[in-house]
């Protein structure tokens, strides 16, 4: 099993579910099964869809993943260092002794081109409902004016004609407004989003010498796994996907670096015996922790205690000198 799937697999098993995720990596279409023991490596894969199975039947499907987020998965035996925290991997143990992960997440530049923005907005249910409402109202007004001005009288039969005229016109005008609205009515939203994106890109440029965007988002995603799968609070959540982030800022307190970030997460959860999904907004605070690690003579991994600096076998999880629990082995963790 790929290392990053352990927490997922445990939660899915609790509900008797199996998850198959489809990726596009270059020209290849690759499926990754949550319960396979041997899996194909994936490099810079874009998620296309997720299918949840129970008893061999598909019970839920997800689409519409952000193509700017790319994932790299490696099998433990093929990994020389952990793509999540960078630690040397002891292939004999089959897992990264620091964070347990073997995946990497790369969030590319947030360039919201016109086509991407249009596609993103047009996929939402609220946009379709609003467009349909606009089409019906406009069609009703056109039909009403037409039949009132062209007829000598306006009676019950004319009202019926207005209703049928509204229905026919709505079918045509819906598709017209569906595309026109995305370009004209939603243009201010696109411009607003682009201003936000410019600020975010400036943030990464200004801090590129201090930390990596790639490492930050990979660590963030792994911390979300801890949040969802290691707590009773989220025991009904079976899966999640990092969707987007809006605001991000840095603080330095007592020489420690903190990053505050507002994110959007799509959760898949059980409700009333059925799988459902919802998009949640969260504000998170991550702290940067310096890491020191090295390979010892027998191929194990040694880290330095973040409290007293003593060399510690990574598998001990506790410093023998000061007793500090070594529970965070990546650069960024939730404060």
Summed up, what is this model?
The protein is α+β, with helices and mostly antiparallel strands. It has helices at 6-14, 114-122, 125-150, 156-183, 187-206, 213-229, and strands spanning 18-25, 28-33, 42-54, 57-62, 69-73, 103-107, 237-253, 256-271, 274-288, 293-295, 301-304, 311-313, 332-334.
Topology:
Layout: H1 6-14, E1 18-25, E2 28-33, E3 42-54, E4 57-62, E5 69-73, E6 103-107, H2 114-122, H3 125-150, H4 156-183, H5 187-206, H6 213-229, E7 237-253, E8 256-271, E9 274-288, E10 293-295, E11 301-304, E12 311-313, E13 332-334
Antiparallel strand pairs: 1-2, 1-3, 3-4, 3-5, 5-6, 7-8, 8-9, 9-13, 10-11, 11-12
Helix pairs in contact: 2-4, 3-4
Please provide a written account of the structure.
The protein is an alpha+beta fold. The chain contains 6 helices and 13 strands. The strands form 3 sheets. Strands 1, 2, 3, 4, 5 and 6 form a 6-stranded antiparallel β-sheet that branches. Strands 7-8-9-13 form a 4-stranded antiparallel β-sheet. Helix 2 (114-122) crosses helix 4 and helix 3 (125-150) packs across helix 4. The model is unreliable at 293-301 (pLDDT under 50).
Keywords, separated by commas or semicolons:
335 residues; alpha+beta; 6-stranded antiparallel β-sheet; 4-stranded antiparallel β-sheet; 6 helices
Number of helices: 6
Which strand-content bin applies to the residues?
A: 25-35%
Q: What is the count of β-strands? A: 13
Biggest sheet, in brief? 6 strands, antiparallel
Estimate the mean pLDDT confidence.
Answer: 76
Low-pLDDT regions: 293-301
Order of helices and strands: HEEEEEEHHHHHEEEEEEE
Oligomer classification:
single chain
Overall spatial form = elongated
Taking Cα atoms only, what radius of gyration do you get, to the nearest Å?
Answer: 26 Å
**Percentage of helical residues?**
25-40%
Structural class: alpha+beta
Report how far the terminal alpha carbons are from each other: 30 Å
């Amino acid at each position: 099993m790929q290392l990053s799937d352990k927490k997922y697999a445990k939660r899915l098993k609790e509900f008797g579910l199996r998850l198959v995720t489809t990726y596009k990596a270059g020209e290849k279409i690759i499926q990754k099964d949550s319960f396979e023991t041997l899996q194909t490596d994936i490099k810079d894969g874009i998620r296309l869809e997720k299918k949840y199975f129970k008893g061999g039947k598909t019970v839920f499907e997800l689409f519409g993943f952000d193509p700017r987020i790319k994932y790299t998965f490696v099998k433990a035996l093929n990994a020389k260092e952990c793509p999540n925290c960078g630690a040397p991997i002891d292939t004999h143990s089959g897992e990264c002794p620091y964070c347990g992960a073997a995946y990497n997440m790369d969030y590319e530049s947030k360039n919201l081109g016109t086509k991407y923005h249009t596609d993103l907005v047009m996929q939402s249910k609220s946009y379709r409902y609003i467009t349909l409402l606009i089409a019906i109202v406009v069609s009703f007004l056109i039909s009403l004016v037409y039949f009132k001005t062209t007829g000598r009288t306006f009676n019950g039969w004319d009202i019926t004609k207005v209703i049928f005229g509204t229905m026919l016109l709505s079918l045509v005008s819906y598709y017209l407004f569906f595309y026109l609205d995305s370009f004209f009515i939603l243009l201010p939203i696109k411009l607003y989003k682009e201003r936000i994106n410019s600020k975010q890109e400036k943030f990464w440029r200004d801090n590129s010498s201090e930390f990596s965007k790639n490492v930050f988002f990979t660590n963030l995603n792994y911390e979300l796994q801890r949040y969802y799968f290691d707590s009773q609070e989220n025991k009904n959540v079976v899966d999640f996907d990092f969707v987007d982030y809006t605001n991000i800022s840095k603080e330095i307190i007592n020489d420690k670096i903190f990053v505050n970030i507002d994110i959007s997460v799509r959760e898949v959860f059980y409700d009333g015996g059925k799988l459902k999904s919802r998009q949640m907004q969260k504000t998170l605070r991550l702290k940067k922790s310096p890491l020191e690690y090295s390979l010892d003579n027998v191929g194990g991994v040694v880290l330095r205690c973040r409290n007293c600096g003593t060399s510690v076998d990574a598998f001990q999880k506790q410093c023998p000198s000061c007793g500090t629990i070594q529970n965070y082995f990546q650069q960024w963790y939730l404060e």
